[in-house]
């Protein structure tokens, strides 16, 4: 192996490069990074330093924890606490900026920006959240803003944050939108976490559920703007790709809120409309049987488990198997958004395996992102398939035995065209099949009844420690 190239740290770099923790070339009057991204540099404009100076906020988290999905203090609820293994969303888990304050609406520019964002949300963005019925359109477009106007600051900021990200996707050079999206994201998380600490109850359960859902959209959309120019190891190109762990934290955060507040939201027509707008899982519990398109991802699993810690063998095996079951179901579903069930339903152990960069876990994840190719026309998922699949592929060594398992996701991710032929996709959809079979609410109701409707027990049933959640509907194995 050739010796590592020396790396000289920048000591006199511009403030923007220091804030972003990237190497500054120290070129005056404007450094190369600021020129590249078309942003002001404090070498030429000293006032930029004031703009970037950190401001104290209610949440003082600035780094991502090094341990996988760290345990957080339980969320107090009226009838119990969250079960271990289910964590609330926090700024640390989502890697969101927290050194920005909410815009001051007494300032005319901020006030006009807020009006612009609310107009964008109600007229455009609310219609892009993968709704599939007029009832759900009504919820996101009218009911949710009205609920925010009743004093739910975290919900209002979540609305404005998603709208700002949407506008940023269309106007990437608009610096005011960049600042607004960062500020409203930070404010959303700060207010949301503060509300969770006070406890979930009948009065705020609906709003917290809707906020958690918008945070999930927010977390996914933020990856559009993730730069791969962080300070990386020059001898390791793979270090320039950040694993998409915020996907799991955000979507599983929604599941956490549902589990801990179901006693109060089970009778909500608003929540029912949103949950039932997604297809219910119908898993074939034989992931390697006839018709299992992704069964090959489990080849050699027994050999891998033989090297596993004996206490983790069963949990690891089940987490891989369940993840492949979800892939098989989403691959055959006529509803493209069915794929989004993956990050919210996989086991906590599987997320740990992804964070550990286990080849099998990464190959499964690449197949999940390939499934999202069918939604390339959705702004917050645009190009996500190509970007994430190729980023994950870059983590595999040349000559890896896993390359043959990556052929399908690579082919799909790089497909150039609006329609993927059945022989390339690997399945021919039945045009007469219903677009989105329902079933999520009925499954939660069944679990709530079986668990005696206790929030902590229901939360445990959603995702017991290290175990994949039970399937919503199990088909007979082939």
From TrEMBL:
It comes from Bionectria ochroleuca (Gliocladium roseum). SUPFAM superfamilies: Zn2/Cys6 DNA-binding domain. CDD domains: GAL4. Coiled coil: none annotated. Keywords: Nucleus. PROSITE patterns: ZN2_CY6_FUNGAL_1, ZN2_CY6_FUNGAL_2. This is Zn(2)-C6 fungal-type domain-containing protein. Residues 13-43 form the Zn(2)-C6 fungal-type domain. The keyword Nucleus applies. Residues 459-478 are annotated as: Disordered.
